[in-house]
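Extended Data, record 5' exonuclease Apollo
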Amino acid sequence: MNGCLIPHTPFAVDFWKSRQSVHTRLFFLTHMHADHTSGLSPSWKHPIYCSDITAKLLIHKFDIAPALVHTLEVGESHILALDETGQETMMVTVFDANHCPGAVMFLFQGYFGSIFYTGDFRYSPEMFEHEVLANRFSIDVLYLDNTYCSPACKFPSRKQATQMIKDIIACHPEHDIVLGITSMYVGKEDMLVELAKTFQTWVVVTPQRLETLKLLELPNVFTTDPEAGRIRIALKYQITRKNMERWNQERPTIAIISSALYTGLNGNPYTNQPDVHIVPYSDHSSYRELHEFVSRLKPKSIIPVVKGTSERADMHCFDNYLESSAKKTSQIAESIPHLRAHQRRPSVNKQ
């Protein structure tokens, strides 16, 4: 699970283990991918803050009580109470994460300092056009999506990757296309719509995914009829040699796996399958993009969102971009008694 209890605060992000968060009052959800919602269920009883799109998906998938789901407008700053009396507050600014529908990044500012939590994101220079980031104020802690934090992770923009997929399809005019993706719930919708419009075909999806797509109010290019469309989606693990043989017995078929997973970090398991094409389409930032983002943000410290012992979790590659300044003490309201023992901001030691 990719989520964190934020130290010395009463809030958490993408963290749904109630027994480990007895002092947590506010829970934030960056987006609806499974590794960020693990632990959520209809029995959840605490307030959740997220984007409007994520709120719709959250209520639909987990049947969370609507009264517990609070939407935060993307691109805006919001004042939230950290205690029951409203004596202690914080400001939360919400940014588009450029990842999947509804995905956001959070900037928290309060007695604890300033904490920027990216969740999963694909960096874009336009992010710094927002007036809050353009002001270049100090960030104490950056929780960074380090999914592809390796020098080997070099991949194209999503626009370029989409064109690569178009070129492959154009070279196989008589073939059906099986498009392998990571999540059958939400993700890569813009690319799917563009492919449908370019090749004038329906995109075949599962009934469950179609229900989700209806919530997103996308163009009407999706169907559950397997005979209606030339392009159909499948999970990556379904792209096997056995399935490819079976599909090709029915009609000529190629598979395209749209994922950067096999770029740098992992070998290509489809090397000997000429009917399977890998396109490094990524909804996460590349290594170069991560460096550009951190160099512009200049935080005092970085904590990886994806935990592990691999080089992806090594944040020392960003040391040259860190802003160095002395730690400052902060005053915590008496209305948050369990935090009185922690009179400092979250640790700003390099991770």
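Summary. Residues 192 and 203 are 7 Å apart (CA to CA).
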